[in-house]
Structures are given as C-alpha cells and as structure tokens.
Design goal:
Blueprint: E1 22-24, H1 31-34, E2 38-40, H2 47-71, E3 78-81, E4 85-96, E5 100-108, E6 111-116, E7 123-127, H3 141-170, H4 180-187, H5 196-210, E8 216-221, H6 227-240, E9 244-248, H7 252-266, E10 273-276, H8 282-294, E11 299-302, E12 316-322, H9 329-339, E13 343-348, H10 354-361, E14 365-369, E15 380-385, H11 388-400, E16 404-408, H12 415-425, E17 431-434, H13 440-451, E18 457-460, E19 473-478, H14 486-493, E20 504-509, H15 517-528, H16 535-541, H17 545-549, H18 557-563, H19 565-581, E21 593-595, H20 610-621, H21 626-640, H22 645-663, E22 665-671, E23 674-679, E24 688-690, E25 697-701, E26 707-711, H23 716-734, H24 748-751, E27 756-758
Length: 762
C-alpha cells in the first residue's frame, strides 16, 4: 500500500503512418550522438515533429529507467504510509496469502508491516535514506497528530491559492508590445534555432504581456535550455513600449553576465541599460537610483541591491527574477511590493513536481522548457578517486585543444590545497581562484581575466553553479563530489559543454574513502546520465525539501518535514481540486483490499531486478484509468516480453481496484463460490442493483452492510469477468448521473438488464 509519483508524464503516444520522413546517417559525431536517429522534414509535413516527439519520449524513458535503477526504492529508504507514518523499506517479500503475491516490508519503531504490492499507492517517499528522522510507532498517536495538523492547514493553503487566482483575474496591467518590425529585427540576433518548448514559452509570454492583465509566469527550464532568451524578448517588449525593466539575479557573477548579454543584444536600440550589484561603487549606485527615478534608465540588472527600499522606479512595467528561491525572506517581501501592478517573469532551473503544477498554476502561469538546444553534445562524465597525475593530464588536454577548465571545490578551505597541487603538477598552466568571501572588485577582476581567456583554469567554490555561460570552458574537475547533492552536481556539470564541443567532467573522491550508499548512487547516476535535457527527471528524484516548500510563496517546510514532500503535495492537489469543483474536502488516502484467490504478482523471473520490480509496482498502483493500464501493459511487453499469467492477473486486479474506488468498496474477497463486498465506513450499499446481462447468481445484503454474491466462479476467467461486471454496475449505482447531465448513454450492451435484485437482510 503506497503512493508513487509516476516519473513519466502520462502522455499517450500513438504511432501514425506519416509521409515525407527519411532517415539520415550522421557522420563525424560521437558514439552517443550516432545512436540517435536524425529525421528530415518535408514541407508541410508533420513527420519531423512526430519524430522529435517520439525521440524525446524514448530519451525520457531511458532517463527514467536509469534513475529508477540508481535512485529507485531500495532497502533502507524512508517511506510514509498514509495510515502508519514514517517507516523504513526493507525489501520485497513473496507470500502465498490466498494466492501468491508480493508484499513491501516496512519497519517501524516497534514492529513491521506487510503492504500488498497492488496497494503501494498508500505509500510515498519521505526523503533521502541519510535524512536524520525518527521512525513512527505502529498505532502511535504522533503520526495521527501530525497528519491531523496538516489536514487542518491544507484547506487554508488551497483557499489562499484560489484567492490569489481570483485576485489575478480582476487586476490590470499595461499592455506591452513592441513594434513588430523592431521585434523581428531583435529576434534575428538570436544565433540559434528556437527549440519547440522555447518557442512555446516565448509565445505565451508575448500573449501575457499584450493581454492587459498582470503576467506572473514561471519559466521552468533545464540547465542551458534557453530561459535567458525568453527574458530578453520580454524585456524588449517592455522597454520599447516605454516601460522600465528590473532584472534581479542571485549572484554578482550572474548579474554581470546578464548585463553583458543584455547590452550586446540591445546594441543599436534606444535602450539604456545599467547594473546595480556589489560590483557597483557608491557613486555609480547613486547614479543608477537617480536614473531609475527620472526614467532615464530603461533596464536595470542587479542582485539584492535592487531590493533596497531606497530603490524606486518611474514606470516599472516588467520584473524578471532569476532563481527566486535563492533569495531570503526579507528580499521576498520586497519582491511582493514590487510585483504590485507589474508584469512578472520568473526563471528557474528547479523543477516543479507534476502533482504541484496544477496547484501552482493558480498563482502563476507555468512554461516548461525541457527540450535541449540542437547540437548540444552529451558530457562525458568520469567518477574516479583523486589522482593528481590524471587530473593534470585532463587539464593539459583541454589547454591543448584551446579551451579552459573549471576546478570546483565544495569547501572553501580546500582551495589552498588544490592550488598547491596545481602549482606542482601543471606549472605551465595559469589559474585564478574565486569564492564568495572575496571583495566585489577582486572577484570582478578575476572573472574578467578568466572570461578574456588570460588564464587557463578557474579554481572556485560552487559560486559558478547558477547560470554562468562560458562556451570556452569544456573540462570540469569536481573535488570531493560525494559531498554534493544530485541536483547540484547536475547544475554544476551544466556549466560546461555549451558550445557544441565535447566536454568532460571528472567527479573525484578521496582515495580509499568509503562512500555512503546514497552518495555512491548519486555519482553513478550522473556518470551514466549522458542525455542532455534530463534535469527535470534528475532533480525530481533529488528535490530539496525546503526549496520545494517555498515554491508556493510561503514557508511550508514544517508540514513537509512532518509528512514528507510527496504526501504534502498529494493532499494539496486534492484540496485544490475539491475546492475548485465545490466538492466536500476529503483528504483521506485509502486503497481497497482485494483478494481474488489467484496468484497476482510480477514474477522475479519476468523482471529480475528487485529495485526495478518495486518501482514498477509503485508506478502501476497509481494509474487511474483503463487507458493508462493498457498503455503500461504494452510497455511491459515491449520491455520484458509476453506477460505471464500472474502479471496479467495483477493488471486485472488493478482495474478492479479502480472500480472499487468508484463504488466505494473498501474490501473485496472473491473465490470459487462468490464474493463479499465491504463498503467504506458511512457508505450504504444500494437497495436495488441492475444486474449485468447473463449474471447467474444471487446477491444478499447482510446486516453488517456487506453485499454477499453467490455464484459459480471456480474457473478464474469467469470469476474475474463476473466481479468486473458487478463492480461496473455497483459503481454506476453509487455515482448516479447529476441532474441535467447531457453525457452520452452507455453502449447498448452495457445497459441490457435481465432482472432487478432487491437486496434483503440475511
């Protein structure tokens, strides 16, 4: 019994016969690139679009499979049971319990429980196995109290989101649209072809800016996906419409880079651009403030210095925020003030979990940029022990091909040690050091020297993590890589390989060090994760709890720590959906218990890897429709071969489980002589029931409220078919069509009724 978040997006793919598609061999490209098939599009043909879509889906499935293997549920991982609280997963166990089936074993403070594999939707991940947390007690009150606190609060959070959405609908903002000819000339300066996701995001932003309502759009994109170009075009519309633009970045380095990018792209247009950060002197900052008040400055780019109360604008029309989650509470309060009556565009590389996207859409519009730019090559990644000779060879090789290198240390105290090693091993290479404790002027001097290619190696802390784009850097050495989280590793690695040149990343660990299982898995997955555009999959497996809590604009980390992030977002999604539909708020998470007297499992002879099998169970248990089950059955057969009988029974059981939910059946026990249906507390069985055509049996309503079905179901196929038909009719009886429902009638064969069974007490 547990809750899994489907790592795929649920998109249904249907292969169509399309004309005009031809495959072209790719020459002179690395092995990983040659594996990909390149398709050419004929004029007015959908072939290339379909090819790209299917290629992206294959790439996504490969990434998810890799992450499942490396980061899937393993022994020792923390999980949350909706009824029992935080426990520890101890593996899969097989028992013959009225039919052979698999169970998930969970350990708690005072005992263990077995959860049927088909009910894994009652479980959710809590966090890393390394997370210091106390397990709950079975039947204890602590879990009930924590979950109760969240239930009381979650409704208020959902109402707050809906209130913000209503307020947005009533607000107005100046329409912003540049002259079409000027805008086309500005766009022509973009040296690349827009990716489909990028083009869609740009179109959505343009539509928002011209609507007359305040835009509040979040651009969520992978490392190097082209989010800055979306911001540039939005800024052009605002500045050329006579309104001011404020661009706020979390670091001085990123601020400096944005300033250079904006000035280069806006050159020749009547737009004045200024910078406000630690790099700005007192006199310069005073001039910037005066220029903003007078309206002389059109675009200002800065760090939190722009969030000072002393900074005011003449006609602020657009606010662009880069990585908002990296700002502190005080700065966020100032951002709220600046948002009033202006258009807001937020850029982030932190992925939004799919179950949160709907709730977040009430507060902000959301654009996802997941497709990587054309020509981007996979980064060759090596995990190795720290070896000065090997590192020296890598740095020399990069220098020899005319490039530069990053050498990143997680801890500032390690910089002198690495600096001494560089002087000893590669004296012919020049290097500079950079870290956050340097003065603004010194940091600027160092970065200018590196950007101007006066030095070969930049030795730094993780301050280069956000947004830096230096195409000449294509080798990275990560010192003590085991100290970093997977998302941070992925972000750092994304600083290289941006120029179409093959890049190399070396993740080093101390010689002879015994890494934790979690650290080893993080490094292994990054080393094997060649495809670009994998950031959403990576970071959704490695979501930072506090950062995720801040996505909704208020600190929810306390609630998330209480119940785990997955359960928090599931309950929030339910609350928002119910309130929007005007339905009663029901936050109980339950799963029907079903026994068919048949073997129902995915045999270990069919899927041998226990981690992969556990993830499959988790994924299957959360499917909500027949179409999703059919699609998953096709994928299983494509990946593992024909379905064995036990696996077929398991998929059938999942379909019956979907119907049990609709019929509000809490427990179903079936055997050769019939079945017993037990309903959820407070649910009364229907007094009359239309029987399926051809049903030969008897139904009795017991005093306990159960329905007892007497039938001859010795043959398994007949048993399953009979239960399925009864559940469909039960679900229809428990969910009668609303008054005025204009939905089409059911197919004729489903409406044929042989008799009416009037249930009587036994």
């Amino acid at each position: 019994m547990w809750e899994a978040r489907n790592p795929n997006d649920g998109t249904q793919i249907r292969r169509l016969r399309l004309s005009g598609m031809k495959q072209m061999p790719t020459a002179g490209t690395p092995r990983a690139s040659r594996r990909a098939k390149v398709h050419q599009r004929a004029d007015n043909d959908l072939a290339s679009q379909a090819a790209r879509f299917l290629a992206n889906e294959r790439n996504s499935r490969r990434i998810d499979a890799l992450l499942t293997g490396a980061l899937g549920l393993r022994k020792g991982d923390l999980v949350v049971h909706a009824d029992h609280g935080i426990g520890r997963f101890e593996g899969l166990t097989t028992f013959d319990a009225d039919g052979v089936r698999d169970f998930f074993t969970l350990a708690y403070q005072d005992g263990k429980i077995l959860v049927p594999a088909e009910n894994t939707d009652l479980l959710s991940r809590y966090g890393s196995a390394d997370t210091p947390i106390r397990l709950d007690r079975l039947g204890g009150k602590a879990w009930i109290k924590r979950k109760g606190r969240l239930k009381k609060r979650i409704g208020a959070i959902a109402l707050h989101l809906i209130g913000i959405a209503a307020k947005r609908e009533l607000a107005t903002a100046p329409p912003l649209a540049a002259d079409p000819a000027d805008y086309a000339r500005f766009c022509e300066r973009f040296p690349y072809k827009e990716t489909p996701d990028q083009a869609a995001a740009i179109e959505a932003v343009n539509r928002d800016l011209a609507s007359g309502k305040p835009m509040d759009r979040l651009i969520c994109g992978d490392v190097g996906s082209g989010k800055t170009e979306v911001a540039l075009r939005a800024a052009f519309h605002a500045a050329m419409s006579g309104w001011q633009v404020a661009v706020i970045a979390p670091t001085t380095l990123l601020c400096r880079q944005h300033t250079e990018t904006f000035r280069k792209r806006f050159a020749g247009f009547p737009v004045t651009i200024a910078q406000a950060s630690r790099l700005s002197g007192g006199k310069e900052l005073a001039e910037v403030k005066a220029g903003l008040i007078s309206g002389h400055i059109d675009i200002v780019i800065g760090t939190h210095a722009l969030l000072s109360e002393s900074v005011n604008f003449a006609r602020l029309g657009l606010l662009i925020i880069d990585e908002e989650q990296r700002f502190g509470v005080r700065h966020k309060e100032r951002l709220k003030q600046l948002r009033e009556g202006v258009h807001v565009l937020t850029l982030t590389a932190t992925p939004i979990p799919r179950t949160l996207q709907m709730a977040l859409s009430l507060v902000r519009s959301l654009s996802l940029i997941a497709t990587p730019p054309a020509g981007r090559l996979p980064i060759k990644t090596v995990v190795c022990e720290m070896d000065p000779v090997r590192i020296a060879e890598a740095l020399r090789a990069e220098k020899k091909r005319g490039g530069q290198s990053f050498y990143v240390c997680p801890r500032i105290q390690d910089l002198p040690i690495i600096a001494e090693m560089l002087r000893r091993e590669v004296p012919e290479l020049s290097f500079v050091q950079a870290h956050g404790r340097m003065s603004a002027s010194e940091l600027d001097r160092i970065m200018v020297a590196f950007l101007d290619r006066h030095t070969d190696v930049l030795l730094s802390t993780t301050i280069i993590e956000s947004g830096l784009d230096i195409p000449s850097v294509n080798t990275m050495i990560l010192h003590d890589a085991h100290r970093l989280g997977l998302s941070q590793l992925y972000q750092l690695r994304g600083r290289i390989g941006r120029s179409g040149v093959e890049a190399y990343a070396y993740l080093t660990t101390p010689p002879g060090a015994e890494l934790t299982e979690a650290a080893r898995r993080r490094l292994d997955v990054l080393a094997n994760l060649e495809p670009v555009g994998a950031g959403f999959s990576v970071a959704s497996h490695d979501m930072d709890i506090r950062g995720a809590g801040n996505l909704l604009g208020e600190e929810q980390s306390g609630h998330i720590r209480d119940v785990g992030f997955d359960l928090f977002q599931t309950m929030l999604k339910r609350a928002v959906e119910a309130l929007r539909k005007g339905e009663k708020l029901d936050l109980d998470i339950w799963a029907p218990r079903i026994s068919l007297g048949l073997p129902v499992r995915i045999p270990d002879t069919y899927v041998r890897d226990p981690v992969e099998r556990a993830e499959l169970y988790w994924k299957l248990a959360t499917l909500e429709t027949t179409d999703e089950l059919k699609q998953q059955a096709r994928e299983l057969q494509a990946n593992y071969g024909p379905l064995p009988g036990e696996a077929q029974h398991f998929l059938v059981l999942l379909r019956l489980k979907q119907l049990c939910r609709q019929a509000k059946v809490a427990e179903l026990e079936a055997g050769p002589k019939g079945a017993i249906f037990t309903f959820r507390p407070g649910v009364v069985a229907p007094k009359t029931l239309s029987l399926p055509h051809g049903f030969a049996g008897r139904i009795v309503r017991r005093k306990s409220g159960q329905l007892a079905v007497f039938a001859r179901w010795a043959e398994p196929r007949r048993r399953v078919k009979g239960i399925y038909s009864l559940l469909r009719h039960l679900a229809a009886a428990m969910n009668p069509p609303a008054a005025g429902d204009t939905s089409p009638p059911a197919p004729r064969r489903l409406r044929r009724v042989r008799s009416q069974a009037h249930c009587s007490g036994s």
